[in-house]
Amino acid sequence: MSSEPTTEELYHYSPNRGAAIFFTVVYAISAASHELQHRTSKPQKFTIPLTLGAIFSAIGFLQRSLLASDKGDVKSLYTVSTMFILGAGPTYAGADYFICGRLFSFVPSAAPMSPIRVVRTFIAFDILAEICVWVGAGLLAGADGGAAARYNIGLNLIRVAMITQAVLFASFVAVLAFFHIRVDVLRAKWSVTSDGGTERRFMVVVYCLYVSSILIITRSAYHIAETFVPEGHSFRATEPPFLICEALIMFLNTIMFNVFHPGHILPIDSRVYLGLDGQERANEAIEGAFYDSRPLLQKILDPLDIRGLFVREKKKQHDPQGELEMENHSARGLVRH
Length: 337
Fold this sequence. Notes:
The protein is about 70% helix and about 0% strand. By secondary structure, the protein is mostly helical. The chain has a single domain, classed as Up-down Bundle (Rhopdopsin 7-helix transmembrane proteins), CATH 1.20.1070.
């Protein structure tokens, strides 16, 4: 007698074949669109995770559709499906972190911290969450009836991954809010100038990051709840919660960035940034302004430089062209006198 688990035993319900096929197709279309948009943005490397996230989702739902059609090895298909569907979340999160870093480098005078520091710190924890998801999914799928310990380890790893992601995004939203507040202060100054500052709609990207954060936090909350409710609970024994809180929510996230692609809104040249007057400039030295010169111990204890959010050094507000403008202004004043 075979001990091979059935699809219903693994999912606690029978997956809907039509829904799985539908999401396979729409995620594949979104992935293809992201790849095309990536190439037409010359290309912008920080948009690559958007393509990868949609590809992961498409692969995961393809395996799920095969499971629903009773085609292939049940355990293998379930493992691959779970790994890619759950792994897509941290990938989308990584896209948000890279986009945020690009925003900070574009408006350095409003950035609460170095874009390099934001990307490295958040991505490090994001990779940890991704590893927990993949290992946890493998342990869950490989746990047979008597392997309770293996199953519990896998389940706890999934919990750690989802809780980590939720906490990360709560912190991410706080950092983004600081940036937003500082941008509003700068834009108030730009509005009184004759030109009104840049015409680039970079705030659209900020609002998209807010929406994406809400979607991903909602998705993480669903998976956290899913791992804590009893197996026989209707929350786990029916498919609609999964289709809404995972499939639909993550599709809204990826399609939003198809419509408002950051690679087409932010400058192609990474050296281009906004000066204190809201005008775009290009300066090769701008990247050097983001070097973290703090002592090693301070970097370890405060990787995001939370202290810098409240006690900001003047050099972090430095505009590479500011000194030249001040000199020109002073010169004009001397001529008038």
